[in-house]
């Protein structure tokens, strides 16, 4: 008898550089390695760059990947994002509905509300679902002031969110603050797993000598402050940009802003308007380049917006820890990131809007003896190796998925 199919639905998937797609791919590949029959439905175009076209069908590390056409139109406008999401939802619904020998469905938050059609399919097919809550909405939109909590849209999103949460057999939350928000929605504690996302350690090494990324971008002999990841209102960078303006005459400093998102325009406008010769804006780097780009920094910046605690989780801290670099955290306390910094002495925290404190933190880290700065980064790496590694966390994650979906690997598949 043919093995049953574990279905994974994610708009982004490798080789797309979006973090959600990379993490979902880790799960798909690990479950396939364990002997499960894994099928992935994803978009045929890049999320950040819709001109990137991926193969319609392929086998990646044992997982069968099928990609939908016209399921992503980029992020240049809300209309294009909504259109891409709607088309993806429609194709995913019918594809999932007719997937043969379906054992269960796993999905995250890419695209938003994909859990609604997947939960409907699961109800029709009588199979369980697992939901990876990478962020919470309408919480995020309300916290950003884009929705009023009593608006019709917010109420609809909350109803949809609760439908997914109460239908899921397992919900994975990213930190204790997110778990608290889920519990407040009357979700049973017994079906929530609190587990942070993991870094992609296989793509990063900690050697900085002869780093071609530093040479290519003129970083040799510079003290490099890097922000690498999604640029968005949920991860505001204004305070860091204001500090960069104040420090524009510091010849030995370099500010790097690597990644993409709606906040990228603010970064590039600040660089242009203030003639910041010591600041560089770069797009997302391919996975193959992360070992060079992330290790090119002397200090990594992690940002979490005020009011975003428990709503989103700045995964970029784990890449910085993997690279063995100290952290400059722009964000509130308490939060998951401030917990890590306070408990393990791996960086400094400053509040948004406090430009002078940001400058002081940068100057303090720049003035530290190199061995002290390296020791801070080494503690970050040791913490990751001990309790936050990909091998450990992804293994625990897939164990929980197997239990929730009540699936067993079929020998020889």
Write the layout of secondary structure elements.
Blueprint: E1 5-9, H1 19-33, E2 37-43, E3 57-60, E4 63-68, H2 78-97, E5 102-107, H3 115-125, E6 129-132, H4 139-143, H5 152-167, E7 170-173, H6 176-183, E8 192-194, H7 212-216, E9 223-228, H8 238-246, E10 253-258, H9 264-273, E11 279-282, H10 290-293, E12 299-303, H11 316-322, E13 327-330, H12 336-344, E14 347-350, H13 355-367, H14 370-387, H15 390-405
Helix pairs in contact: 1-15, 2-3, 8-13, 11-14
Summary?
This protein has helices at 19-33, 78-97, 115-125, 139-143, 152-167, 176-183, 212-216, 238-246, 264-273, 290-293, 316-322, 336-344, 355-367, 370-387, 390-405, and strands at 5-9, 37-43, 57-60, 63-68, 102-107, 129-132, 170-173, 192-194, 223-228, 253-258, 279-282, 299-303, 327-330, 347-350. It has 413 residues and is of the alpha/beta class.
Describe this structure in words.
A hairpin with a 2-residue loop joins β3 (57-60) and β4. The longest helix has 20 residues, at 78-97. The N and C termini lie close together (11 Å). It contains 15 helices and 14 strands. It has helices at residues 19-33, 78-97, 115-125, 139-143, 152-167, 176-183, 212-216, 238-246, 264-273, 290-293, 316-322, 336-344, 355-367, 370-387, 390-405; strands spanning 5-9, 37-43, 57-60, 63-68, 102-107, 129-132, 170-173, 192-194, 223-228, 253-258, 279-282, 299-303, 327-330, 347-350. The mean pLDDT is 91. It is α/β, with parallel strands linked by helices and 413 residues long.
């Amino acid at each position: 008898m043919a093995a049953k199919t574990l279905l994974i639905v994610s708009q982004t998937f490798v080789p797309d550089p979006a973090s959600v797609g990379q993490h979902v791919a880790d799960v798909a590949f690990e479950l396939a390695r364990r002997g499960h029959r894994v099928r992935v439905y994803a978009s045929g175009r890049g999320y950040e760059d819709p001109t990137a076209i991926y193969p319609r069908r392929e086998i990646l590390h044992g997982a069968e990947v099928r990609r939908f056409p016209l399921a992503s139109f980029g992020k240049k406008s809300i209309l294009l994002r909504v259109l891409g999401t709607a088309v993806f939802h429609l194709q995913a619904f019918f594809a999932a509905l007719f997937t043969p020998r379906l054992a269960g469905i796993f999905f995250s938050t890419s695209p938003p509300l994909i859990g609604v059609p997947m939960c409907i399919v699961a109800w029709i097919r009588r199979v369980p679902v697992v939901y990876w809550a990478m962020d919470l909405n309408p919480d995020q939109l309300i916290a950003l002031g884009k929705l009023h909590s009593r608006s019709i849209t917010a109420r609809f999103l909350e109803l949809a969110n609760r439908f997914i949460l109460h239908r899921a057999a397992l919900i994975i939350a990213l930190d204790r603050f997110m778990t608290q928000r889920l519990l407040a929605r009357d979700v049973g504690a017994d079906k929530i797993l609190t587990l942070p996302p993991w870094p992609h350690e296989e793509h990063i090494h900690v050697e900085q000598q002869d780093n071609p990324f530093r040479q290519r971008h003129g970083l040799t002999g510079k003290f490099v402050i890097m922000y690498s990841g999604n640029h968005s209102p949920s991860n505001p960078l204004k305070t860091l940009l204001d500090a960069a303006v104040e420090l524009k005459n510091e010849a030995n400093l370099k500010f790097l802003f690597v990644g993409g998102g709606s906040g990228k325009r603010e970064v590039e406008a600040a660089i242009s308007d203030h003639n910041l010769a010591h600041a560089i804006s770069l797009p997302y780097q391919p996975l193959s380049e992360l070992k060079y780009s992330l290790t090119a920094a002397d200090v990594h910046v992690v940002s979490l917006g005020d009011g975003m605690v428990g709503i989103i989780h700045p995964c970029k801290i784990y890449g910085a820890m993997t690279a063995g670099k100290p952290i400059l955290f722009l964000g509130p306390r308490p939060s998951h990131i401030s917990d890590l910094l306070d408990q393990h002495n791996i960086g400094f925290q400053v509040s948004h809007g406090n430009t002078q404190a940001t400058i002081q933190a940068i100057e303090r880290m720049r003035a530290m003896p190199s061995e002290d700065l390296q020791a801070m980064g080494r503690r970050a790496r040791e913490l990751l190796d001990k309790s936050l590694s990909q091998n450990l966390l992804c293994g625990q994650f897939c164990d929980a998925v197997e239990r929730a979906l009540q699936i067993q690997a079929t020998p020889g598949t």
